[in-house]
What does this fold into?
Amino acid sequence: MNLQAIGKPLARVDGRAKVTGAAHYAAEFNQPNQAYAVIVSSSVGLGRIASIDTAAVARLPGVLAVVSHLNAPRLAYNPHKSGIDPPVGERLHVLQDDLVRFYGQPVAIVVADTLDRAECAAAALRVTYEARKPVVDPRDKQAQPMAPAAYGPVEADNVRGDPDAALAAAAVSVDVSTDIGRQNHHPMEPHATIATWNGEQLTLWSKSQYVANEQAEIAAVFGIPQQNVRVICPFIGGAFGTSLRTWPHVTLAAIASRQVGRPVKLVLTRRQMSYTTGHRPRTLQRMVIGATRDGRLTSIIHEGMGETSRYENFVESLTAGTDFMYSCPNVRTRYRLVPLDIGTPTYMRGPGESSGMYALETAMDELAYKLGMDPIELRRRNEPTIDEGLNVPFSSRSLMQCYAAGAERFGWAKRTPEPKSMRDGRLLIGMGTATATYPALQFPSSARARLLADGSAEIEVAASDMGPGTYTSMTQVAAEILGLPVGRVRFSLGNSDFPPAPPHGGSQTMAAVGSAIRAACLAVQNMLVERAIANPRSPMHNAGLDALEWVEGHLRRRGGISAEQSYAEIIAAGGGAPVEATVSVERDPEIAAKYSMHAFGAVFVEISVDPDVGLARVRRALGVYGAGRIVNPRLARSQCVGGMIGGIGMALMEHTSLDARDGRPVNAHMAEYLLPVNLDIPQLDVHFVDEVDPHVNPLGVKGLGEISLVGMAPAISNAVFHATGRRIHELPIRIEHLLKL
Ligand code: MOS
It folds into this structure.
C-alpha cells in the first residue's frame, strides 16, 4: 500500500458542520405540520394497569390523541432478530396489554400540537395500577440464576484441564468476588425519532447506530415490507451502545404519527433514558486464581453472573477474555443470567470485556501482591504463545510490547511497590496497571463506490458515526485506494437506502465498513480498466491487466510509458455516465477459523486519595494499544481518550441506583448520575505500538474504541489499593469505601 491518506492525522471532515450547527441530529429534522408525542411511563415496578382516564386529558387544549393499550393498534410484532438483539426472548410489545413489567415501561402516549401541550397533558393523565413488589436485585433471595438458553457468540461454560484439582494443589491462590453496579449510557444526545407516514411508506429520522436494522425491526413490528420503511440518521451525538437496538419509542413515534395523520416528533427525557433504552447490566463475579510460588498460573475459575429482564436474555462476553488472556492449563469459565423485573440491558462501552476483565485484572494484581512480584512481571511470566482456549495462534498480539512501552513512558520504575508508600503532601498516591483486550470483530458489510464525470468519488454505506470519526476515516480509505485527494471523495452514511453495514458497535466499523469501501473502490477501478482496454481510442487499448496500474487516480502502463488516463477521461470516453459498484465483503471464514483475533493493551494509572475525605482522583493515565493499523492517529487518540474517560466514570462515578421498593432509578438525571467532567479529567496519554497484522483484513485494522475503556477500571482499582492498602471489589469506588484510611 502506498499510504498517501491512511495513517495521516486528518482533522474531521465533518468538523465544520458539527461546530457550525450544519450537522443535523435526529430531533432537528423538523417536518411541516409536525405534532409532538410524550411518553407516559409506569410509576410502579411490576403489576397491572387498573385504569387510564384518557377522556379528561383528550379534552385539554391541543391534544390530538391519547394512545394506551385500550386503543392502540394491534401490531404484528413479527419475529425479527439481528446480531444485536438478545438471542432469546421477545422485545417489549408496547401498548399491547395491561401488564407492567418494569418501572418506567411506557403505558401511554400523548400527542399534541405543541411540545408544551403534550407534556402538560401527559402529566395530567391519571393511571392507576395494581402494583406488586418487583425483584430488582440479583442478590434478592427470589432472584434465580439460570444458564443462558442461547449464547450467540458467548459461551456459558468452558473448561480445560482440571481447575478444581489444580487450585487445591496451588501454592498460592486468590479468591475475589466483585459487584459492578448498573450503569446507563447517558450520551449527550437524547434518543429521538421523527416519524411520518406517506400512505404505507414510513420515514423515520431516528437516532440509530444501525439504520439497516431499525428499518428491518420496525417493518417486522408493523408487519409491513422492509422497503416501506426508511431510516435516516446522518449524525449521532454519542451513543455508547444505547442506540444499537431499536427501542420501543421508535414504535411509539410511528404509532402516534399514524394515529394523528401528521409527522410526529418524540424525544425521550433524560429520565426516560434511564429505563427504556438499555443499560450495562449489573454483574456479580467470582475470580479464583491458583499459581506456583514463582508466579505461573495453574488454575483460573471465573464465574460471572449478569442481570437481564424477564422477557429477554441479554448476553454479553463477560467471561470471554479469561479463556485466552494468560497461559494456564486449567481454566473454567461459567456465565449465568439473573432475570429480574427490569428493562432489558444492552451493550455498553466495551460490553462484556470491561466487566469481565475488571474481575480478572483485579485478581491478577492481588496475586502479584501475594507473590511479592511486580504485576507486569506476573503478566510476562504468563504470556501465552497461542490462544489456549481455542488452541489456535493469535493473528497478532503485542501485549508485552504494550507493557514495555507503557512502563517506560509512564515511569513505572519510580513506583515503590509497598501499599501506602507513596505520598504527595497529605495525599496518598497510588499507581496501578491492567491489561485491556477487545475482539477484532468484522461482520459482513457492503458499500457503494461511484466515480463521477468530474473524476471525484462518492461513497455510500448505511453505516453510522457516533463520534469516532467514521466520516473522516472512511474518506481516507476511499482516497487511499482511489488515489484521490480526500477533498475529492464524498462519503455518506446513515440512510437505510444505502448498502447495509453491520451495527456501528463492537469497535468493528473500521474493519467491516472500511474493508467494504476498499473493495468497492477496487471494483469501480476494475470497471474503468475494462472500459479502457476495450476502447480502441484509449492508449490502454488491448493492454493486459498486469501491464496497467493506477497512480494517483490515473491509469497508465507500467514501466514509465507516459500515456495515462484520468477517471474523468475514461468516464467521458464512455459517454460521461457515472460508474458505480456495490460490493459486500466478509472476513475469509478459513482465516477466521485459523486465528484468534483481538486487540491488546496495557493501561497505567496514577491516582491520589485524600485520606481525610476518602476522595480518589485520577492524576494521570496512559493507555498503550496494539490494534493493528491506525488509519487516523489523531482521531484514534481522541477516541481512546474518550474510552479512558468512560473507564474513569465506570471506576469512580457511574452508577444507576434502583429503589428496592419499586425498581425506580433514583438518580435518573444528570445531577446525580455522576459522569466525569473536565475537572475530573487529568492528563491522558495514548500510545499505539506498531503492529502489522496480515490476517485480520487487507487493511490490517483491528478496530479501536472499546478496548480503551476495558483496562481502566481495574487499573484504577489497583491504584487505589496501592495508594491505600484497601481492596474495593465494588464499582464505582465511592467515598464511603475509602473513609478511615
Ligand atoms: Mo458499542 S457498546 O458496541 O456501541
In short: The chain has three domains: 31-132+187-269, 283-441+592-737, 443-586. Residues 31-132+187-269 form a domain with the Aldehyde Oxidoreductase; domain 4 fold (CATH 3.30.365.10). The mean pLDDT is 96. The two ends are 57 Å apart (CA to CA).
